[in-house]
Specification:
Largest sheet: 4 strands, antiparallel
Strand order of the largest sheet: 1-2-3-4
Order of helices and strands: HHHEEEEHHEEEE
Shape: globular
Number of helices: 5
Strand content: 25-35%
Length: about 190
């Protein structure tokens, strides 16, 4: 099977899956289905396998949100999804061959952060762009916070909040509930 010649068929199959329920929804849910379609289509690109050319992996997926040159001469491409709870990271070696593909928005990946050592650039290079950015505190206690949506323990809809001090280094990080996925209270 040639992954390039199979791509149109895979996209048609993905669209067919999407179309099954899209017509039976309420009009105000349209944005959710558009987001679902984009997510499904992004997942319809052929599989990334070790040894394949990085150029092929990038061509099949389009431009990544973040590209990073690795110290050993390879490259990291991060495909972020602001409303999603995962991202796809593809890494290559110095010869331009894919060495691995993984989701970096996991508890194990966040555990690699080193307080006082990692900078905003280190966090961006590891996890891509944050879903949300805010500034909290006041005066000398102000901190910039980057928040990443993910599934804590692979189950819970969460945000990993990463705080940066005035010097741009990580001061703390911790998970919390993601209000985007929490039920809304009605005003009765």
């Amino acid at each position: 099977m040639n992954p390039v010649s199979e791509k149109p068929r895979m996209i048609r199959n993905c669209l067919a899956v999407f179309a099954l329920d899209a017509s039976s929804t309420r009009p105000r849910a349209g944005w959710a289905y558009a987001l679902l379609a984009a997510t499904v289509l992004a997942g319809c690109a052929g599989p990334v396998t070790p040894g394949m050319p990085m150029a092929q992996a990038l061509a099949e997926r389009g431009a990544p949100a973040v590209r990073v040159n690795l110290p050993a001469g390879g490259e990291r491409a991060i495909y972020s999804n602001t409303f999603g709870q995962f991202n796809r990271v593809i890494e290559s070696d110095a010869a331009g061959k894919v060495v691995r593909s993984y989701n970096s928005l996991t508890d194990d990946a966040f555990a690699q952060i080193r307080i006082g050592q990692w900078t905003q650039q280190d966090v961006r290079d590891a996890f891509g762009r944050p879903a949300e950015t805010t500034v909290v505190g006041f005066a000398e206690k102000r901190a910039r916070v980057w928040s990443y949506r993910y599934r804590q323990d692979g189950v819970w809809n969460s945000l990993m909040h990463i705080h940066f001090g005035e010097d741009g280094r990580v001061t703390e990080f911790y998970p919390g509930p993601d209000q985007l996925f929490e039920p809304k209270e009605s005003n009765k």
